[in-house]
Amino acid sequence: MTNLEQLKYTKSHEWVLENADGTVTVGLTDYAQKELGDLVFVNLPIEGDEVTAGESFGDVESVKAVSDVFSPVSGTVAEVNEELLDAPQLINEQPYEAWLIKVENVGDKEELLTAAEYEAFIQGE
Amino acid sequence: MGHYIPATKEEQQELLAAIGVKDISELFTAVPEEVLLKEPLNLPAGKSELEVRRMMEEISSQNKVFGTVLRGASAYQHYIPSIVKYITAKEEFVTAYTPYQAELSQGILQSIFEYQTMICELTGMDASNASIYDGASAAAEAVAMCRERKRTVALVSATTHPDVLATIQTYCYGVGAEVRIVPEKDGVTDAEALRAALAEDVCCFYVQQPNFYGNIEDCTALGEIAHSGGAKYIMGCNPIALAVLKTPAACGADIAVGEGQPLGMPLAYGGPYLGFMAATNAMTRKLPGRIVGETKDADGNRAFVLTLQAREQHIRREKASSNVCSNQALCALTAAVYLSTMGPEGVKQAAVQSMSKAHYFAEQLAAIPGVTVKNQGNWFHEFVTTLPVDTEKVLAALAENDILGGLPVQDGILWCVTELVSKEKLDQAAAIIREVCA
Amino acid sequence: MQLIFEKSKAGRGCTLLPACDVPEVQLPEELKREQALNLPELAETDISRHYTALAKRAYGVNDGFYPLGSCTMKYNPRIDEEIAALTGFTGVHPLQPAETTEGCQKVLALAEQYLCEATGMDAITFQPAAGAHGEFTGLLLIKAYHEARGEQHRNKIIIPDAAHGTNPASAVMAGFSVVTIPSGADGCVDLEALKASVDENTAGLMLTNPNTVGIFDSNILEITDIIHQAGGLNYYDGANFNAIMGVVRPGDMGFDVVHLNLHKTFATPHGGGGPGSGPVACKEILKPYLPGCASLTGEQPKLQMKAFHGNFLVVVKALTYMLTLGAEGIRNACETAVLNANYMMEGLKDLYPVAYGERCMHEFVLCLENLKKETGVSALDVAKSLIDHEIHPPTMYFPLIVHEALMFEPTETEAKETLDEAIAVMRELHKMAYEDAEQMHHAPHHAQIKRPDEVLAARQPILRYQAD
């Protein structure tokens, strides 16, 4: 189980793990998956695509809605969690295990929140 | 009050009283005075049902309906079994809306699911949508499915029906994408020209099978070439021909589309017809329009629903890849009833007989001095002839005998024969043409 | 219920075609179909019963009340169907010589006369096959117009946030970027927001009036003027035309182009999702850009939306309807539709708050947010409960600017007793929400199926039948 205290968060409800090798792993928070409801599909970029901090890199679909997912950092997509293409429900079941993408060559970063700050932020939503 | 308004004058007064207004005009006070119509529309007064019937029957009689049709070019007269018309006239099917409410629309949903299955069977593809407007718009939507950020150019064979080409060009004009024509050679797509046209910016190649001249393209080879250049491969198919021809799936197509009108729909001056669209699993989520899927209800019983809806405009809005909303559901039902009634053998018979009769007629015409059949390789139920005389003369002589001749095209006439035309009629038509050409 | 494929028996069939009377021609092996053609094999009895059973599991407006907002589910007259089935129309090839299709041309000319008069426009095309197809067509006209004037930089279409999803989707297909403007507190266009959104890149505005909350925007002349002043054109989405026909015309309100949904306003049936017909009427300035047909003229047109003349038989039905109604009848239909909607709203508004306004046009939107807060019963629960009372649910969760929205459009073809009954049922459901919410969460209870698992359908799509 991921230690939630280690993670950083965005106001658009992505979690961010800064790995030792300089790459960054991005996923959706538990709050986000609850708000979105049962997810039925994810649209993800492909390896090698460029992502930009604060801009959408993909989206997640529920039965009656679609929501953009925003990149917390700028960089290059190093890896995509292809397991989610067949099993989007993993995001609902284990949001902190079901990462979406890993980004390398990380440049700009969004302003990220700590676990405590994010907790306070969603209380206010 | 009539005219489909049940309310009597008295009842309308009751309704007004309940709302608390004296006159209906009070309900329109939001409309600015200066644009409110002061006079009735400048149109004739309403008519009784009998008057309208007489008038419309008289108008319909001003059309010439030919006893024999030797013209096709994407609108084909095939035999329509009696039951097709009766089933598709059932009010429950005719007057229902799109089946948003699955709990009272299982009949519509199941009929579409069965239609989707039949289109998959005909084409060999993995998944079909619930239909779109017609074959030309289906082709244009298929091109849109293939467009990517870096690959935007569509290649279209010169042997494509001109309406399909013009529609693809219109849709591409909308988004500012380019269409390049792949030239023809001897009545089929020039394969080497296709190879040369492929480039980094090409997203797809579209070919019609059989093509506009009736010729059967080497679709397997064309598909291999398209894929070798990284382009997607779209085939526009005649559904009757698919009963005997190698399927688009077997030819390597990523998307198969076509004009579904031959599957039980009358000529009807061009519509409503049916655009069918089917794709490989990899491209299923890019299909536009409605798609029906099977699931279970809360009791665990089989149920059908509109599915994969998050692709669509009502959810994605400006991010949707297509705006399609209405489809041609009743035409899809028509196709499904037609295919069920004809069965696998019946559809094959329609295909084989159309092809055989067309070849028989071509032989009769080729025997006339000065007439040349242009088609050289394999062809299906359409062919082009050159004539030693003015085409209009030939067509006029046929028309006098209640026969709609082929379509005038650049090199002569594009003929079409279906299973509906008897040998006797073909012999008669050939005799008339022989006489005019003499 | 079994699928038609599951009822198939090898060897069954119908005798439909005579034996081939010419020598049979075969394709060479390499071109032949290899895959077996697995279509159903059935006797005519089986087919007839199968589809009759399916028809019994379908529900159309001719079966019962269908107040589906924004869809104008009015009764579909039978005479329209009979006329469209005349061989004199069904037997005409689209590429017949013009001198043999005078009747068809007359149908189109008459329909043009009626629709241009009703909309206040100068010209029309019948090629678009549906409303969304019409929107795309109309926007391409606007695009072609600006280009012809050397103003291709005009690439923005302004659309209110309450608009139907097809509007922004169509704009993008026509190559425009979408500027969304928020609705004002009254549900109408916020004039200040509109003024702030126009600039030298404005290509036009897409609007429906009455809007999607059922209110006629009184500022319409100011709105269309703001766009014209900025050099843009005004597009009228005809989805709600039933609310104004014979009373006020888009052409008089400053609109330059309009699409009509013949399958809504002009009583042609929806067929379970189509075929519709979405003719586009326009002012003289846009006429040069109307679509053509390559196979008919032998020339490549600038625009072509599909093959041939559009969904011709649908136009025949709409014309039959318009001839029947005439000038007065068209106005009566509109007025009665608005009357019926106001009557129904009046009977419900004390229990279910109306989203906007005191009066409505041909439809109204109820907001069930409070009901949900107090009882847990959602707009979906109420809609599904209506099915048990043999009423087709209203449009749910649209427009997006209203939470827990239910949108009712009763149309003019419903009698007072039908409206009274629907009001009574809705009031009964309100009571039940407070007494037995649980029961409503699982409604419908007496329908063809219980609520379907849509998540399962989308996660593991089964889109065709596969024999085991």
Average pLDDT of chain A: 91
What is the helix tally of chain A?
4
- How many discrete domains of chain C? 2
Main beta sheet of chain A: 6 strands, antiparallel
CATH fold annotation of chain A:
OB fold (Dihydrolipoamide Acetyltransferase, E2P)
Q: What separation lies between the terminal Cα atoms of chain A?
A: 26 Å
Oligomer: heterotrimer
Q: What is the top-level CATH class of the largest domain in chain C?
A: Alpha Beta
Content-based structural category of chain C: alpha/beta
First-to-last CA distance of chain C: 17 Å
Number of strands of chain A: 9
Helix content of chain A: 10-25%
- Succession of helices and strands of chain C: HHHHHEHEHEHEHEEHEHHEHHEEHHH
CATH class of chain A: Mainly Beta
Structure characterization notes:
The complex is a heterotrimer of chains A (125), B (438) and C (468). Chain A is an alpha+beta fold and 125 residues long. Helix content of chain A is 21%, strand content 33%. Chain A is built from four helices and nine strands. Chain B folds into two domains: 68-78 and 343-437, Alpha-Beta Complex (Aspartate Aminotransferase, domain 1), CATH 3.90.1150.10; 82-337, Type I PLP-dependent aspartate aminotransferase-like (Major domain) (Aspartate Aminotransferase, domain 2), CATH 3.40.640. In chain B, strands 2-10-9-8-7-3-4 form a seven-stranded mixed beta sheet, with helices on both faces. A four-stranded antiparallel beta sheet of chain B has the order 13-14-17-16, covered by helices on one side. Chain B has a two-stranded parallel sheet with strand order 1-15. In chain B, helix 10 links the parallel strand 8 and strand 9 (255-259). The longest helix of chain B is centred in the last third of the chain and has 38 residues, at 329-366. Chain C folds into two domains: 78-323, 3-Layer(aba) Sandwich (Aspartate Aminotransferase, domain 2), CATH 3.40.640.10; 327-454, Aspartate Aminotransferase, domain 1 (Alpha-Beta Complex). Chain C is globular and about 75 Å long. Chains B and C meet through helix 1, helix 2, helix 3, helix 4 and helix 5 of B and helix 2, helix 3, helix 4, helix 5 and helix 6 of C.
